Amino acid sequence: MADFIRADGRSVNQLRPLRFQNHIAPYAAGSTLIEWGKTRVICAVTIEESVPRWMKEQKVTGGWLTAEYSMLPYSTLERKPRDISKGKLDGRSSEIQRLIGRSIRAAVNLEKFGPRTVCVDCDVLQADGGTRTAAITGAFVALSLAVKKLIAEKKLVESPLLASVAAVSIGIVEGRALLDLCYTEDVAATVDMNLVMNAAGEFIELQGSGEEATFTEAQLAELIATGKAGIRDLLVAQQAAITQG
Amino acid sequence: MADFIRADGRSVNQLRPLRFQNHIAPYAAGSTLIEWGKTRVICAVTIEESVPRWMKEQKVTGGWLTAEYSMLPYSTLERKPRDISKGKLDGRSSEIQRLIGRSIRAAVNLEKFGPRTVCVDCDVLQADGGTRTAAITGAFVALSLAVKKLIAEKKLVESPLLASVAAVSIGIVEGRALLDLCYTEDVAATVDMNLVMNAAGEFIELQGSGEEATFTEAQLAELIATGKAGIRDLLVAQQAAITQG
Amino acid sequence: MADFIRADGRSVNQLRPLRFQNHIAPYAAGSTLIEWGKTRVICAVTIEESVPRWMKEQKVTGGWLTAEYSMLPYSTLERKPRDISKGKLDGRSSEIQRLIGRSIRAAVNLEKFGPRTVCVDCDVLQADGGTRTAAITGAFVALSLAVKKLIAEKKLVESPLLASVAAVSIGIVEGRALLDLCYTEDVAATVDMNLVMNAAGEFIELQGSGEEATFTEAQLAELIATGKAGIRDLLVAQQAAITQG
Amino acid sequence: MADFIRADGRSVNQLRPLRFQNHIAPYAAGSTLIEWGKTRVICAVTIEESVPRWMKEQKVTGGWLTAEYSMLPYSTLERKPRDISKGKLDGRSSEIQRLIGRSIRAAVNLEKFGPRTVCVDCDVLQADGGTRTAAITGAFVALSLAVKKLIAEKKLVESPLLASVAAVSIGIVEGRALLDLCYTEDVAATVDMNLVMNAAGEFIELQGSGEEATFTEAQLAELIATGKAGIRDLLVAQQAAITQG
Amino acid sequence: MADFIRADGRSVNQLRPLRFQNHIAPYAAGSTLIEWGKTRVICAVTIEESVPRWMKEQKVTGGWLTAEYSMLPYSTLERKPRDISKGKLDGRSSEIQRLIGRSIRAAVNLEKFGPRTVCVDCDVLQADGGTRTAAITGAFVALSLAVKKLIAEKKLVESPLLASVAAVSIGIVEGRALLDLCYTEDVAATVDMNLVMNAAGEFIELQGSGEEATFTEAQLAELIATGKAGIRDLLVAQQAAITQG
Amino acid sequence: MADFIRADGRSVNQLRPLRFQNHIAPYAAGSTLIEWGKTRVICAVTIEESVPRWMKEQKVTGGWLTAEYSMLPYSTLERKPRDISKGKLDGRSSEIQRLIGRSIRAAVNLEKFGPRTVCVDCDVLQADGGTRTAAITGAFVALSLAVKKLIAEKKLVESPLLASVAAVSIGIVEGRALLDLCYTEDVAATVDMNLVMNAAGEFIELQGSGEEATFTEAQLAELIATGKAGIRDLLVAQQAAITQG
Question: Is the pTM of this model over 0.90?
């Protein structure tokens, strides 16, 4: 099946080209513009020197990490109105930013951040499928850059990072498991999975969904295997981006 | 490991007691109060004789199905303020109602509903863990009762139902995979999974999440196996509730 | 006029059948599902161990009691969208919950609650007229159960309850004063009155309204007399429900 | 008891001085500034040449009348933040504007307005008790002025007004029934009643409320008798204001 | 060009008639109803004995002054829905209230107010062009009355007022610079300017805008010269109103 | 005075370095990232093939152009919460987007766009003063790129652009008129002016504001002269960016 060539020339288990443009937002503690195929997401990490009220009330020590996700209105082929113009956060955005938060929290030891709130913002500049996986993958780079800076500024003595985290989508399109779906593939997919893993090969989050369809245990196994290989490639690219600073 | 006895007396792969009180809300087309251990969710299906505007604009035929999920303020040990008092839908509720919608849509052929909107409402009366899986499992019963009624009223000629759908949670607590977590187990779990499957043994949705933790492929396999067995028991209980009418 | 038989078989001064299903929401301090004809309302009382900020600022001692009222979306024959989907509380709900709050506050000595907030929640499961009077009548039962529990738990040494409170609607339909209107009678009524009274035969609240109509002093007297008799029956039913625990 | 002199020099059944300054808002179809003691309310009626969507959908003919009530931020001794700064309509305002709407609708034959919406706006410039009764009493004057104008402009051939409508508050303060409470009396009252009546001596709305207190049937009778006398005086003052144009 | 006679009989550099009705809202610390041609704006100043949180946090001493602007729904020929009915502040209102705030802050030494918040409220009763300049001009009168009162009450020892502030609009209509545009002139203007100046002849704010048009440096000079003359007349009228008390 | 050297090495009438990165958001019809000193704003133009409802109702022909402005949360040194998290648009953002809209509308003949809505979005990536002037200056580049594309796609036969539009800030700091203020200069300025001009040397918008200060006619003249020179340099840079495509 590996011989199948996708509309954009990729093989079934090939990622779209990946590029990081670090420091896109220099006032953030760390930031990167992840370009993954035609998908582009600004990932920025800012640090607040306080923790949410519930942590104080419940006397939880250490820091907190929260994430926000938004699609810029010009990120889609048809303009997407801003949340504020409708007065409420889009349900899909809410779901995605909760996923980003859980995924990145699994990458850090919050205790080591001290009484700080780490804010991860992901703003989609162009959406061609896989914006949530791009957001997670880019957010880890932005966070790593922020940690470097905090250490350089002597605000942290040791890194709170546990292991690199990356995410990829996999889907079943016309019966084939495809890695890293672009938008047209995503629309055609009968099953859609998002996989978040770390550098130790462990799962952080696994979400498989058959919108108006179902999938078998064999398909699940194939999707996971395909995704795991993709994650390995992503971790390499991430590391290069972080090292380059 | 099957010898391990949980705090509430259950074995690791045993469901909490399940009971359905149908027609709890008689003005709905179909409704049931699912009582699953101490968790209680009102599931009600209402039918609107129209479809959302986007379907008309995009000339999509058939019907639509949408879901809403809410926790009643007295469903938790500490009172939970209503969404309206904060002016916005809770992020968790938004995520759960999207999951319910996808899960139940996978159970039906929307085309066969004709130009109608099927509204699935799930209101939690008591929350002791597993409210989203109770909502999905109960919603399918409520939907089945609604379909019976529509057929009896000659509004439908054949059933749009494809296969029964049920959902269960599984988690890893102190290294053990446990079926159907109650609240205290849920809080202690390092990995939390929700599994939605149909009567054909196919997956509809699989969400595994290691909040501030990770899981291995072996653990994933054990979680899935444990969950599948639970789903089988649920489908039997659902069928009994639907037959009883 | 007492010979007149209403569409549902009742005489003009007869209540619809009344039933209380206590402890419908066991995590509340007290709760009951009041079924009054086809009208069904979940009444639940929860206790917060703090008082509103304005009481602290104004140095008011004792407790506070507040009420919220909501119609579940499947409580009406045509689905009623949730308040949160419109982003604001319905004007009618706002008016009703203020009435419930005033009525139940008149039943208690707030000073004796200590620095606590008593939250009364009324959620309509089925609406066939008289939901506000059912909410008040049920709320007093739920509150009584909550007080019993607080006394049993030694959180209160004596009961803050002053006298039982019940409410009933009365209306003029085709020139006749009818007790306890169902929905179709309510729609047909030219005058609509809600009466809240206590076990001492005193008035707590009296609201008579001639929507696009008027009423005379003689009609007012007849409405009050009819209502008072209904209240007496309600107080008996309430007492039975409270005693049964 | 009539010998009792109130703090402001009035007898128990005496109204505060009443004055109407018509045409305060000349772009409205009709408007008046009612000054009633220290209470001042701008009442303005505007006409829209269309009806609400629900009337079209339900094929209801004739016109509609709706009311809005708001307290200007400088109307109280302590500045009251605008509703918009809190993002939602105050519960009390919502309740009052519903009362104004019902009361004024009872004064007109909506059918005769043709397919128009009559908007009654009441903005409180100074609040010294009785703002809702001032709003209703002033609104009827503003409406009468608007009807005169519509007839003069040949937009209406005959008046849709049925009978004059006025409203007054009555309360029990230190055991005495007092007519037309000012703010300090309102705060001290154990029972508070609002009475809306028409020129035919009929009741339109009667709301008696014992906030944290109760009242007997004898007290109710006294309150009503006191209020009825006040209404008669109000109707005379209204008529003078309308005639003066 | 001075011979040109405008539709309402004025010369090009003539203001509309101006009148102040002080103490329109007696519970405010200072208030006036400015009537300027057919434009009418209620300007009221209230004082809160506290400062905004940001001042405390940033340890800024002295007082603060903030402004709010709103159009009453019956101030326009076609009824304007209230902000609260749309759930958000109108963009134009937001812009105007920021302008009023800046303009009036330039008239005072905030330090001398002590730790107080001065709230300037401007509510438009009738809108015939120039409502923002009327709001500023009237607000200064209301503020002066409030300062007089605070001094009389010994709450202030010396006046925090620096210099009188007034505002006027100027526009280019059919090539001519016209002072103080009424609504129909405003609609016809290709260039619209608002000028805020003080009694020392200094500029506080200058906003010139060519909506879908442009203007030259020569036109700018003429607009400013015309406006300056108007400001002089306004300052005289203001002073008379303040003196009269 | 021209010898004065500013903190960042510039002379008093020197712009900060300017750079345009076109096509930053390729799904927009036209887009550019304007980098002006440390200020960075994403400007994107999207086209909707419809016009607002009010244009249809008022039968206005041609197109419409609207603008939105937002600061990304990581654009400031201290994280700025998103508008949606507070539920309402920031007053300053509202004012700025209205200015952008007016300025860009003055640059086009809307009639020639046909029945389309041109949406101009400006999102600030980094804020170091002058974000509104950067937004206007960048928006004109993005619009020019969009017009080129529409002509290339034969959707427009001729350009609706009338003249290039650019904007710059000028301020008085320690008595000196400075061109193009950075953030620290902006904070220190006693007078702040924004100037929007076109390639014909005409004014489109002029806003001078002395927050808690004033300015004289001589200072106004100096500010305008300084600004005009800056605009000329900006127009050259813009043209180069547009030509490069």
Answer: yes
Q: Which residues pair with F68 in a beta bridge?
A: F121
Q: How confident is the model at residue A212 (pLDDT cuts 50, 70, 90)?
A: confident
Question: What's the pLDDT score for residue D102?
Answer: 94
CA gap C180, C227 in Å, rounded: 8
Q: Is C204 exposed, middle or buried (0-12, 13-18, 19+ CB in 10 A)?
A: buried
Output the six-digit token pair for B127. 């929350």
The encoded tokens of residue E137 equal 């001009």
Q: Is residue D226 pLDDT above 90, yes or no? A: yes
Handedness of CA F7, F9, F12, F15 (dihedral sign): negative
Q: Is 60 exceeded by the pLDDT of residue C2?
A: no
**Alpha-carbon gap, residue C153 to F65, rounded angstroms:** 67
Residue in chain F lying closest to E90 (CA) = F94
State how far residue B2 is from chain C, nearest Cα, in angstroms: 31
* D94, D106, D214 member nearest C210 (Cβ): D106
Q: Which residues contact C149 (CB under 8 A, 6 or more apart)?
A: C29, C30
- Report the residue of chain F nearest E192, measured CA to CA: F205
Residue C134 C-alpha, separation from nearest chain D C-alpha, in angstroms: 18
Q: What does the alpha-carbon distance between residue A142 and residue A146 come to, in Å, rounded to a whole number? A: 6
Per-residue confidence band for D99, with pLDDT thresholds at 50, 70 and 90: very high
| Whole-number percent of chain F with pLDDT over 90 | 88
E94 touches chain D (CB under 8 A): no
- Does residue C1 register a pLDDT over 60? no
List CB contacts (< 8 A) between B73 and chain C. Answer: 44, 46, 68, 119, 121
Q: C105: which residues sit within 8 A by CB, 6+ positions away?
A: C65, D211, D212
Q: Does F84 touch chain E (CB under 8 A)?
A: no
Q: How far from chain centre, in Å, is Cα E242?
A: 15
Q: CA-nearest residue of chain F to A79?
A: F46
* Chain D interface includes C78 (CB < 8 A): no
Q: What residue ranges do the domains of chain A occupy?
A: 18-244
**Which chain C residue has the Cα nearest residue B72?**
C123
Which residues from B are below 8 Å from C44, CB to CB? Answer: 72-74
F65 vs E: CB within 8 A: no
D62 touches chain C (CB under 8 A): no
Q: How far is CA B200 from CA B203, B204, D90, E69, in A?
A: 9, 11, 53, 64
| Other beta carbons less than 10 A from residue B211's beta carbon | 15
**Chain A interface, best mutation among B102, B132, B191, B214, by max A CB count within 10 A:** B214
Q: How far apart are CA B174 and CA B187, in angstroms?
A: 12
CATH topology of domain A18-244: Ribosomal Protein S5; domain 2 (3.30.230)
More confident: A83 or E38: E38
Instruction: Tell me what pLDDT residue F2 has.
Output: 55
Q: Please report all neighbours of F, defined by 3+ CB atom pairs within 8 A.
A: A, E
* Pair of tokens at residue E50: 């506290």
Residues in chain B closer than 8 A to C28 (CB atoms): 74
The answer to whether D74 contacts E121, with C-beta atoms less than 8 Å apart, is yes
E-state strands within D113-240? 117-126, 165-173, 176-179, 191-198, 203-209
Strands (E), F132-214: 165-173, 176-179, 191-198, 203-209
Percent of chain A with pLDDT over 90: 88
Smallest CA–CA distance from E95 into chain F, residue: F95
| Strands (DSSP E) found in chain D | 18-22, 30-36, 39-48, 64-71, 117-126, 165-173, 176-179, 191-198, 203-209
Q: What is the mean pLDDT of residues C81-87?
A: 86
The token pair that represents B76 in the structure block: 């938790």
Nearest Cβ partner of C216 from D95, D202, D213? Answer: D202
pLDDT in tens, D14-43: 999 999 999 999 999 999 999 999 999 999
